[in-house]
Amino acid sequence: MKPKAADKLATGIIVFFALLIVAVLLGMLGFILFRGLSHISWDFLTSEPQTIREGGGIGPQLFNSLYLLILTMIITIPLGLGAGIYMAEYAKPNKLTDAIRLIVEVLSSFPSIVVGLFGLLVVVQQFDFGFSLFSGAIVLTIFNMPLMVRVTEQAFRSVPKEQKEAGLAMGLSKWKIITSILFPVALPIIVTGTILAAGRVFGEAAALLFTAGMTTPHINFSDWNPLHHNSPLNPFRPAETLAVHIWKVNSEGLAPDAAQIAAGASAVLVILVLIFNLLARWLGRALYRKFTSIK
Amino acid sequence: MTDTLRTENLKVYYGEHEAVKGIDMTFAEQSVTALIGPSGCGKSTFLRSLNRMNDEIPGSRQTGNIWIGDKDINSSETDVTVLRQKIGMVWQRPNPFYKSIYENIAFGPKYHGIKNRKQLDQIVEDSLRKAALWDEVKDRLHTSALSLSGGQQQRLCIARALSVNPDILLLDEPASALDPISTSKIEELIGELKKSLTIVIVTHNMQQAARVSDFTAYFYLGSLMEYNETSIIFTNPSKPNTQEYISGRFG
Amino acid sequence: MKSNQDTPLLLRKHRTEEWIGRGYTTICVLFLIVIIISIVYFVATKGISTFAINNVSLSDFLFGSTWSPDDNKFGALPFIYGSFLTSLLAAVIASPLSVCAALFMTEIVPSWGKKLLQPVIELLAGIPSVVYGFIGLSILVPFMRDTFPGQGIGVAAGAIVLSIMILPTITSIATDALGALPRNLKEASYGLGATRWQTIYGVIIPTVLPSILTGVVLGMARAFGEALAVQMVIGNAPHIPTSLFESASTLTSVITLNMSNTVMGSVQNNALWSMAMILMLMTFVFVFVVRLLERRHKL
Questions:
Q1: Which segments constitute the ABC transporter domain (chain B) (predicted)?
Q2: A222-226, B162-166, C35-39: lowest mean pLDDT where?
């Protein structure tokens, strides 16, 4: 009977811990949504933050986060795709390729704050881009690129090799095969991976403290000329993102409703990350169905 | 037109291993040549070397000459792109592109510079007709090629190979992944196609070789053991090894 | 296709395309290489200047326990200690939980365990670190304050927050390893009349141990480099803590708090860069260990 009893006990413990993890997640989500949703209103989402008084919003921060994400993806996607395609299709199995693989691994393990410091030193100061959306986008690109490379490489490797052979036998150039035959097949995986990576970028704060900055100058939301100083689209202005704002409110917030603002902003952040997750899954599946027309 | 396909002392190496050991062969035009032999005898490698698909395998190289008429396509001066337009290929497992039926066929001609929509429509129809698939798919040309059955997919792949007007068609066990009905359709098709093409087919199926081919080449351990008219190979082979293989004693 | 004057044109197009593809992808890879070289170069130059230019002794920096820039004392031991302590503790808390979660998905209820836990793990991985910090500050810290001695903030709070953050890393690697086990391995054990736990304990865990360790090391690497969530709950006192419920600091938290309050080029600022250099060197160590474990796993 003893082994049987041990078996039951062990199973019980495993189930308990597994359910504990579920409970922790549900507890955290519940807390965030319960505390945060009540604070979310149209006014909160669109108005400017207040330093000392009550009733500040997160309008500029929300905009900054979304805009920074778009800027980052504009830089990351072409670079990540290119490097991933290189790894999947052009790299020969030799020392150089091993070295590049190691680089990708190291780069993806770098603490984001170290990448942020590098951005501060090189992009913000050396190249004199200052605390700006552009500096932030560069740093987030560095932070995000290893993931994009890996996703792209995996996606291309998952394409059946017969597809490539068919293209070769038709006398297509390798590049034409990559862009016209392999890429459409790889696209669903790439899209899913990219959106998930975007969610990660969206929540990143440590790398941005010293690059995109912790302040937002007054933005004139009626001026959409990116070249104008006060335009929201000006990529060379400082921009505090939502994640950075949450950190700042928590560590040095003076407003009396700082806790509520942090909760509201956290809820917005979590909901957006959730949306990214669902979108990634849905879009990946929809694209897969479209390309294979498997009903 | 003397664009006869001929190999001269063709050798293929994978690293140090000599997989194909100096083959001299001349393929009769407008006829079907079957390559048979036990697994690992080099027949598939030999077939792939004819349109230089082995170029894509790291560590492989091939020496000797492959003549089409008076042009050596195994020389480094010959661009594989041009060569591969003249030689179509179909594999064991159907591999249509993840595109519509129409796009699968029109893709090659488009790449080679045909932009005119009417001309493309015509090529698609002609190719599908030649592959005996037109009647089955003419109403759904713009649905995905992956919605077709395995046998239809394989005929689509043949149509795709025909779309760029090749002189030679290489078939690597084209029916081995298909059911008997689809297989007989493919065999029928081969008989039809040889009227205008030189066809080389690798097969494991002796009956199939006997049914579809005019000439048969028996490979063993990377060498060409025997090459003759199919009827002679199957009724009166000159080597005992050939006899044993054909009668199913090994392989 | 038979017309010969088309051929050179096609050839040229073909060559151009090859050239574009090769060129474009190579540039992207070069970008990666340039980035990593410049990160290592710049962080190392800045980090070394503390010792080379400002003449702070390396041993004082590594083993000095007093951080007091006003008195010219740059002992970083409290932070190094804090980083190691929190990430080790986080791994100690998270590892058993993660292995249980992985076993739950693959061995206990393979039918629906994955459907339940997989999304949970993915969501845990997706929650931004500042949100973890905020939750830690709002729930965990008050709870610790009421339950244990001290102010609630401190090493324990930091380690717990980190453990939840690294849980997904260890769990997903452990789950993959368990899922990749050959069937007959388990069947052989069950065939001998072993119970499920005996099979897990005696056959499964030993087989996948290198993979689980890989996950643990990757999790620790993440914990070691995590900045804001820890900084928000650890208290940020520049001392070596004497209890788990005492305020402390980590390398990342000190950098986060002081980088913008110090002048570039000052000793204090350079000392922060030296800490960044330690973070970077530790990344190399973690990657190296992971590679070692993976090599062992392959044998």
A1: 5-246
A2: A222-226
Task: Please state the domain extents for chain B.
Answer: 5-246
Nearest CA of chain A to the CA of B205: how many Å? 22
Distance from CA of A68 to the nearest CA of C (A): 16
* Cβ contacts of A185 on chain B, cutoff 8 Å: 98
What is the average pLDDT across C9-33? Answer: 90
Report ipTM for this prediction: 0.90
Spatial CA neighbour of A168 closest among C64, B48, B70, C294: B48
- Given this model, what pLDDT does residue B3 score? 75
Q: Which residues contact C235 (CB under 8 A, 6 or more apart)?
A: C151, C153, C154, C246, C247, C248, C249
Please give the CATH superfamily to which domain A38-292 belongs.
Answer: MetI-like (1.10.3720.10)
Contact call for residues A165 and B93 (beta carbons, < 8 A): no
DSSP state of C148: S
| Interatomic CA distance for residues B225 and B46, integer angstroms | 14
How close C15 gets to chain A, by Cα (Å)?
Answer: 8
Kindly report whether the global pTM for this prediction surpasses the value 0.90: no
Per-residue pLDDT for C61 more than 80? Answer: yes
* Neighbouring-strand partners of residue B25: B7
Per-residue model confidence (pLDDT) at position A68: 94
- Asked if the Cβ–Cβ distance from B81 to A173 is below 8 Å, we say yes
Q: Which of B86, B113, B166 sits opposite C6 (nearest CB)?
A: B113
Task: Write the single-letter amino acid at A89.
Answer: E
Q: Which of A11, A32, A106 shows the shortest C-beta gap to C197?
A: A11
What is the pLDDT at residue C1?
Answer: 40
- pLDDT at residue A156, as a whole number: 96
Alpha-carbon torsion A203, A207, A209, A213, what sign? Answer: negative
Contact A149 C32 (CB under 8 A): yes
Give residues with Cβ within 8 angstroms of B135, minimum separation 6.
none
B-contacting residues of C 1-40, CB under 8 Å?
1-2, 6-7, 9-11, 14
pLDDT at A295 over 50: no
Chosen for mutation from B3, B80, B83, B85 (greatest number of chain C CBs closer than 10 Å) is: B85
- CATH architecture assigned to B5-246: 3-Layer(aba) Sandwich (3.40)
Nearest CB to B53 within list A93, A165, A292: A165
CA–chain centroid gap for C277, Å, is 16
State the smallest CA–CA distance between residue A114 and chain C in angstroms.
Answer: 6
CB B29 within 8 A of CB B3: yes
**Tens digits of per-residue pLDDT, C174-211?**
999 998 888 888 888 888 888 888 888 888 888 899 99
Centroid of chain to Cα A209: 16
The fold for domain C76-263+283-298 equals MetI-like fold (1.10.3720)
Of B86, B112, B166, the CB nearest to C10: B112
Domain segments of chain C: what residues?
A: 6-53, 76-263+283-298
